[in-house]
Amino acid sequence: MKVRSNADWLADLKGADRDLALEDLRALLLRGLTYALGRSGGLHEETIEDLAQDALLRILDKLETFRGESQFTTWAQKIAIHTALTELRRRRWQDVSLNGMADAYEGDFVPPSLADETAGPEQMATQGSLLKTVQRLIQEELTDRQRQALTAIVVQGMPLPEVARRMNTNANALYKLLHDARKRLKQRMHQEGLTAQDVMAAFET
Amino acid sequence: MTNQEWQSNRPHPSVPGEETSPKIAADQSTGSFAKLNREQLKRLVELVFFTDDDELSCDECYDKVDQFAELKLIGKQPAEALPLVQAHLDRCPPCREEFEALLEALKAIAQGG
Asked: What is the pTM of this model?
């Protein structure tokens, strides 16, 4: 493959050498995604090729936003991985709705702390008390949307970008919504006299 | 409420299955948060206590993560140069997953993969 500087990549992708540059970039993305997604396991070669193709189109769309703060190829791999993992998360969670997840937990609350033989009675009681306090603060301080997002992330373990998609917003806006929620809860916990040290001691085994 | 008061307001010590267990103490009006298990509760309080006023959003982290990855690959200390990126990666699992995948890809390609 031709060795290119950042400026060469931009020039080639927009100029007469476009076809060759596109082919080189596509091959590079394919290699990168093959390694990057290796941990996901079980992905067919064709799936990775499709993801690389989608990523290539996304990168071409964003060429004007490249500021040269890293190697062009690093920037391109970053976009490819983001595009691919966003799609894979969407597929993985596609059949799960926010409400559906909440329903799945109805009537099924047996805190594992109760079954956790490493926690003594004192510690379990502390956890129970903490749970009550956290519940009250969540109820008092957070909006419905903040509660809904926090439930999906903490209770259901759904990745933030997927929660954002379901709540018709984007990851950035949702992060800010949750950041505000966390700040409020932190402030209230301090007002309640709870320190991080005390609280984390409730979980030490 | 002071911490002492908070401590004294705890339910009586209990053993699994007894009526005074934390399960009973859960307030159903809070919906799914009545159903937090131990690990979820721990994760929630960690999220809250590790909150900083000055945090990068996912987009702001994404803008810098390619630089961050390159610093890491050449053996520099990216957490010192870009501490807010490190902090975001520490608290945001999807962004961390993407960063780790990027590192894997860059390392493999640098080694001629």
From this structure: 0.80
Domains of chain A (ranges plus CATH)? 6-93 (1.10.1740.10), 99-201 (1.10.10.10)
> Is A182 within 8 Å of B51 when comparing Cβ atoms?
yes
- B104–A contact, CB cutoff 8 A: yes
pLDDT in tens, A44-77: 888 999 999 999 999 999 999 999 999 999 999 9
- d(C-alpha A100, C-alpha A26), whole Å: 39
Tokens 């540059």 belong to residue: A21
pLDDT given for residue A80 in this prediction? 97
State phi, psi for B82 to the nearest 5 degrees: -130, 65
Cβ A109 vs Cβ A84: under 8 Å: no
The continuous run of DSSP H or E covering A121 comes out as: helix A121-141
A47 to chain B, closest Cα gap in Å:
17
Q: Do B58 and A175 touch (CB under 8 A)?
A: yes
Please state, as a whole number, how many other Cβ atoms lie within 10 Å of the Cβ of residue B66.
23
The structure tokens listed for B29 are 């009006």
Q: What is the ipTM of this complex?
A: 0.84
Q: Which residue in A has a C-alpha nearest to residue B37's C-alpha?
A: A111
